[in-house]
Specification:
six-stranded parallel sheet, 184 residues, Rossmann fold, two-stranded antiparallel sheet
């Protein structure tokens, strides 16, 4: 990873994409370690985490994470997930945050030097190209090792640097609760 001590850094995390990627790779992220890592690489201007929330459920498994992130240095951007029923009567939850991420990327681009983008979604090729035209270096963090790969080839080709998230397990991964010695 090439970083410069005086560069202004912003992190953009596609929450659902990151969740799917690390679940596929079977490791958990220590978000505090991750934030500390990038704070140590330059001047961290913003760390944004994007996710849709199921509002009608009594319990949302993502809510404790979002609350923790909000209190610990991340700016969480959420919106209610939409529930739809297909023609076979199956309920699906949908909550795409791409538009919100792209708008924020373009708005913040004039104020940063380096963008760290946690997603493998090919829909981000054009916005990455747009911020690069404004002079921003873009590092994409995703996985080609996941089965199936979570990184779109067009995004990989567009970014300035790619970080394989599977290699970051020792840097900002955390042990699974059933992997901890002596804990129940």
């Amino acid at each position: 990873m090439a970083f410069y001590p005086d560069e202004r850094i912003a992190i953009f995390i596609d929450g659902s994409n990151l969740y799917s990627t690390v679940k596929n790779l079977d490791f958990d992220i220590d978000y505090k370690k991750m934030l500390d890592l990038f704070r140590g690489k330059g001047r961290l201007i913003r760390a944004n985490y994007y996710t849709a929330l199921v509002e009608e459920a009594d319990y949302s498994p993502i809510r404790p994470l979002v609350d923790w992130l909000d209190y610990n240095g991340y700016h969480c951007i959420t919106k209610p997930a939409k529930s739809q029923v297909d023609r076979d009567g199956r309920r699906h939850t949908k909550g795409n945050m791409d538009a919100e991420m792209i708008v924020d990327m373009l708005e913040l681009a004039p104020h940063i030097d380096h963008m760290i983008l946690f997603t493998g979604d090919g829909d981000f090729k054009a916005p990455v190209e747009a911020v690069q035209k404004k002079g921003v270096r873009v590092t994409v963090v995703s996985s080609r090792r996941a089965k199936p790969p979570m990184l779109a080839d067009e995004l990989r080709r567009q970014c300035d640097t790619f970080i394989e998230i599977a290699d970051m397990d020792k840097v900002f991964g955390r042990p699974k609760s059933n992997d901890r010695d002596g804990e129940d």
